[in-house]
Design brief:
Distance between the termini: 55 Å
CATH architecture: 3-Layer(aba) Sandwich
Largest sheet: 8 strands, mixed
CATH topology: Rossmann fold
Shape: globular
Strand content: 15-25%
Helix content: 25-40%
Number of helices: 7
CATH class: Alpha Beta
Radius of gyration: 16 Å
Order of helices and strands: HHHEEHEEEHEEEHEHE
Structural class: alpha/beta
């Protein structure tokens, strides 16, 4: 219970405390620490369907591509569990698909692969999180963004619903709700 209260406080207070300009000026490890905390907290406010896990011993797997967390994500989740499951971190290579991943983070270094990763995860209960401007338009679920010199996040609840993920109303209240823009027809 205490962990959930702390998570709720972190999610609600962190975006207000971190001006985006300061975020950009910090060393990559500070940025990695902040994003790792967000990823861990996002996972606590999402409900995955039972079929997302092959068995009771299967870990909750966070997959990352495009940003080197330099071990920060592993340290953030070390010793933590999610609904009684240990948390594992896996790095996806250029040709890897998000099989057995429950959360995939596509960092800005791999932003050009966002649509490819999102498409590979479609039809699976995988929470997709990214940084790129078109992440939501590509079908992603959560995107980090800068608003008024603050780091915030937006959520596309329709994309989460399509993946059979239930987003907590508490997380939705903290987010900007986003929907993909209609793409112009190509003639």
């Amino acid at each position: 219970m205490r962990c959930r209260i702390l998570a709720a406080i972190l999610i609600s207070v962190f975006p207000m405390l971190l001006p985006a300009a300061a975020f950009a000026l910090q060393t990559p490890s500070v940025e990695a620490q902040v994003k790792a905390a967000f990823l861990f907290n996002f996972a606590q406010f999402i409900q995955w369907p039972r079929q997302a896990f092959a068995g009771p011993e299967m870990p909750f797997t966070m997959c990352i591509t495009g940003d080197s967390f330099d071990g920060v994500l592993e340290k953030t989740v070390e010793g933590e569990t999610l609904n009684g499951r240990r948390i594992a971190v896996r790095r996806l290579g250029a040709s890897d698909i998000p099989k057995d991943c429950h959360l995939v983070y596509v960092g800005r270094l791999e932003a050009r692969r966002s649509a490819e990763v999102i498409t590979a995860a479609s039809g699976m209960p995988v929470l997709t999180v990214g940084d790129s401007e078109d992440f939501i338009n590509d079908g992603g679920m959560i995107r980090f963004m800068e608003v008024g010199h603050r780091v915030r996040f937006e959520i596309n609840p329709d994309a989460a619903d399509r993946a059979s993920l239930r987003v907590s109303s508490r997380l939705l209240r903290l987010a900007d709700i986003a929907r993909p823009r209609e793409r112009a027809a190509i003639r």
